[in-house]
Write a structure and sequence with these properties.
By secondary structure, the chain is α+β, with helices and mostly antiparallel strands. It has a two-stranded antiparallel ribbon with strand order 1-2. The protein has a two-stranded antiparallel ribbon with strand order 3-4. Strand 3 and strand 4 form a beta hairpin. The radius of gyration is 23 Å and the shape is elongated. The protein starts with 13 loop residues before the first strand and ends with a strand. The N terminus is likely disordered.
Length: about 130
């Protein structure tokens, strides 16, 4: 069954782009409005110094169909961008970069990272 891919210029489905970051920090739950005993009762063991490893995820919403264009495709055959260039992970990251640049205001896109295995990835910063 032949399937026609959407034109790259067509608006896509709503996409959510997320970025996850990690940081480690310590804190002690303690209110300056309570005395030491009241703080111990209110916060229990959390009134002592505690360390945590935090994960922060930021998500933006936009219209883009880059993933739809790539997902479950035979890249060399189904995606016109790869007709005249090899579908290396380096070229995949460039393709996604160029498609995202079309949809975002100037200066918003900073980095695209593509993993092709658990151990390997390519990052591109537009340089």
């Amino acid at each position: 069954m032949s399937r026609t891919l959407p034109d790259v210029e067509e608006p896509g489905h709503a996409m959510y782009l997320s970025r996850t970051e990690f940081f480690s920090a310590a804190h002690c739950l303690h209110s300056k409005y309570l005395n030491d005993e009241e703080n111990r009762k209110a916060y229990g063991v959390s009134n002592n110094m505690n360390g945590y490893n935090y994960r922060v995820k930021v998500t933006i919403k936009g219209k883009q169909n880059v993933i739809d264009e790539l997902d479950h495709r035979q890249l060399d055959r189904d995606v016109p961008y790869f007709k005249d260039r090899p579908s290396t992970v380096e070229n995949i990251v460039l393709f996604i970069w160029h498609q995202m640049k079309k949809c975002l205001p100037e200066g918003i896109l900073h980095e695209i990272e593509v993993h092709n295995s658990n151990n390997n990835c390519v990052k591109y910063l537009g340089e």
